[in-house]
Amino acid sequence: MFDAGLVVAPVLLPFLGAAIALSLRARPAAATACGLATVSLLAVLSTLLFLQAQARPGAIRNVFGGWPQGIGISFSASMPGVAFVLVTALVTLAVSIYALADIGPRRRRAGYDAMMLAMVGAVNGAFLTDDLFNLYVWFELALIAALGLLTLDRRAPQIDAAIRYAAFAMLAATLILVGVGMVYGITGTLHIGSAAKVLANQPPGFATALAAALLLGGFALKSGLAPFHLWLPTSYHTAPISALAAFAGLLTKMGFFALLLIFAGMFGVGRGAPGAAQLVPLFGAIAAMTMLLCVAGALAQTDMRRLLAYHVIAQVGYMMAGLALATREGVAASVFYMFHSIIVQANLFLGAGLIRHATGSWDLTRTGSMVRREPQFAILFAVPVLSLAGIPPFSGFWAKLIVIRESLAGGSAWLGGVALLAGFMTILSMASFWSDACWKSAPGAVRRIPRSGLVAMGLLSSATVAIGLAPQWLWGIALQSAQSLEAGL
Amino acid sequence: MMILYALAGAGIMASALFMVLSRNLVRMLLGLSLLATGTNLLLFLAGRVRSEQPPIIAEGAKTLGEAADPLSQALILTAIVIGFALTVVLAILVLRTWRTASTVDARNVDAAETLGPPKSRDPIDV
């Protein structure tokens, strides 16, 4: 009973918090307190769930309504999901602390707390569910909450961005839904593990390949992979920076998590992918295109939010490269990269928000002087910047190293070469970002930055350093995740 | 019968995709909502249309014999609700654009794409 409750707690708690925050939104201080309390409790429960799941892998599950497994909607605390729930809680906590100074009473009255909590609940739902249709539902819930956050200030650019985002996401959802329907028609079940067993014993057919292609298209659109990447840098940047950090950390990764679940788990890419064998060669091309196009796009930008938005998708390209190798180690490499990327992306956007607060501009040509005026910030900000660039000893170095090592070991040396090239371009982009924002003198006055922002960045930066210093531990978890995805737990 | 349904579903999807590609935002909105309808029809077919008898358990029998798949009907109901919610949200956004920019032509709705001069792109946050 305790276990069954624990596995749904990361979903129920944020929605409960969202309901309370919604009723309190006329009083911004109370709503803030409610949001922060919910997120802190969520962090505790997620840690508990992670420890329980690690002690007894595959044992903690809950099928709603007492239905037999395979018919009822089931949640299970299996490896990559619970670890991502923990990282989500960490990122949400940092964002909530940052939001103390960033999100004012007007935005709180507009429902910031409730929508942020609802989005986190939906993201956690996607990480924990075992059911294909349920996965689709969580994506749609996260989309609606994200649209609310995106249009919080009701400015014309935000409305425009929300239309772009909603149109692309709805199209993706349709592809996903038809794909899910076809998988159900072929296998007679929506439970991912059971569907994997049916698909493994079936000769590959036209319908299976079509279902796989629809699911690939839908989730590639959701996670911003090339050639469906351009909606992201033209819509994300208009959101309030606290919401933007959460989007960058969580939403595209949620899309990639679904790709992992479906292609590594259900179609069994690591086992030769009986159903989706025709699609796997395409993965490498998608990954290479995403990495190169998006890093090149980032090099051309001077607006901090857009520059980082391009990097968000370039990073998804690296994860896709891991999946494209079609080996268990390759899948583990993507899982490792996801952990690193969730934390670093959120941290970079928080840093960009603080630079904006200090210098009054999003444009890199009008920022500067952070080293002189805020040395603590400049050092804290260097951690995610160097980590994204892949400089040792930070987490990004290990993540990139593992992807490149596994590409060489998996016989796709060209993919490793592309990853290396994109890595060099990332170093260039990040070096000019940091020196523009911190070293150069600013054209205007530089304001003090709020301490709560530094605390939030410190939280995420220390996680990045911790991964950098003990990569072996996380690699162990990533291998365990790849194994549990393959076993269909 | 199945092939007829499948063709109808494909026809609806094709018309919907044509409308989504339109530059008129209202037409795009209608296209997306039509797309959801086509999806529901395909979902219905995925569960297979088997029987024309009402789903009632015969006397003495323990299980339902010949009946259409109830699970896909539950899926469609959920998908209708979600599709409706998303259509309403998108309709609000389009209405808002019409009220502020007096246009529903996608070519003129580009506030997010063109950042504008630095002063207007860096509004004071609250």
UniProtKB/TrEMBL annotation, chain A:
Membrane topology recorded in Swiss-Prot or TrEMBL: Multi-pass membrane protein
Highest rank taxon of the organism: Bacteria
Matches recorded under Pfam families: Proton_antipo_M (PF00361)
Transmembrane segments: 6-24, 31-51, 71-100, 112-129, 135-153, 165-186, 206-232, 244-267, 279-300, 307-326, 332-356, 377-399, 411-434, 454-475
Major localization class: membrane
UniProt KW keywords: Cell membrane, Membrane, Transmembrane, Transmembrane helix
Annotated localization: Cell membrane; Membrane
Occurrences of domain NADH:quinone oxidoreductase/Mrp antiporter transmembrane (ranges): 130-425
Family: Belongs to the CPA3 antiporters (TC 2.A.63) subunit D family.
Protein name: Proton-conducting transporter membrane subunit
Organism listed in the record: Sphingomonas agrestis
From TrEMBL, chain B:
UniProt EC number: 1.6.5.9
Residues passing through the membrane, by range: 6-22, 29-47, 74-95
Gene3D superfamilies: 1.10.287.3510
Keywords carried by this UniProt record: Cell membrane, Membrane, Oxidoreductase, Transmembrane, Transmembrane helix
Compartment(s) of residence: Cell membrane
Membrane topology type: Multi-pass membrane protein
Entry keyword Nucleotide-binding: no
Catalytic EC class: oxidoreductase
UniProt key word Ribosomal protein: no
Annotated GO MF terms: NADH dehydrogenase (quinone) (non-electrogenic) activity
Domain of life: Bacteria
Family classification: Belongs to the CPA3 antiporters (TC 2.A.63) subunit C family.
PANTHER family in alphabetical order: ANTIPORTER SUBUNIT MNHC2-RELATED
Protein name: NADH-quinone oxidoreductase subunit K
Species the sequence originates in: Sphingomonas agrestis
